Automatic annotation (TrEMBL):
Residues 5-47, 76-119 form the SpoVT-AbrB domain. It comes from the Bacteria. It is found in: Cytoplasm, Nucleoid. Keywords: Cytoplasm, DNA-binding, Repeat, Transcription, Transcription regulation. Belongs to the MraZ family. InterPro entries: MraZ (IPR003444), MraZ_C (IPR035644), MraZ_dom (IPR020603), MraZ_N (IPR035642), MraZ_sf (IPR038619), SpoVT-AbrB_dom (IPR007159), SpoVT-AbrB_sf (IPR037914). Forms oligomers. This is Transcriptional regulator MraZ.
Length: 143
């Protein structure tokens, strides 16, 4: 499970060093793709295979399913971390997420998310009130 918040830098070649706590699970390969709210989702290869299998089960007759599948899978890029634990974020994904040099990398349970640091701070500030007001009906039995 991926947890925590980290603030690595994007280098001039579009690479980022994976946080130490994420390295073991991602060491054998990972997939980056477009995430919602203009971030980049990072899945272990194993987790991405499971997601892809669920996507494959969506009805081809559903326009909404086709649209989601196209956006999600067309942005996907399989990567393997190098010996310095760096991964290259493809230019199309860097552009999609508006990544600058300063990043915020968060653990989001089954995935990692890569955000532009300013975009993350804006998102977090906007969501704080809703987070504080979240009722039990949103996630039954949580509290």
């Amino acid at each position: 499970m991926f947890l925590g918040t980290y603030e690595p830098k994007l280098d001039e070649k579009g690479r980022v060093i994976l946080p130490a706590k994420f390295r073991e699970e991602l060491s054998t390969g990972l997939v980056l793709t477009r995430g919602q709210e203009r971030c980049i989702y990072v899945f272990s290869a194993r987790e991405f295979e499971q997601i892809n299998e669920k996507i494959r089960q969506a009805p081809v007759t559903s326009k909404q399913a086709r649209d989601y599948m196209r956006v999600f899978l067309s942005g996907a890029s399989a990567e393997t971390p190098d010996k310095q634990h760096r991964i290259t974020v493809p230019a199309t994904l860097r552009s999609y997420a508006g990544l600058g040099r300063d990043l915020t990398v968060i653990g989001a349970g089954s995935r990692v998310e890569i955000w532009d640091a300013t975009a993350w701070q804006t998102y977090l500030a906007e969501q704080e009130a809703a987070f504080a007001d979240t009722a039990e009906e949103v996630i039954p039995g949580l509290f």
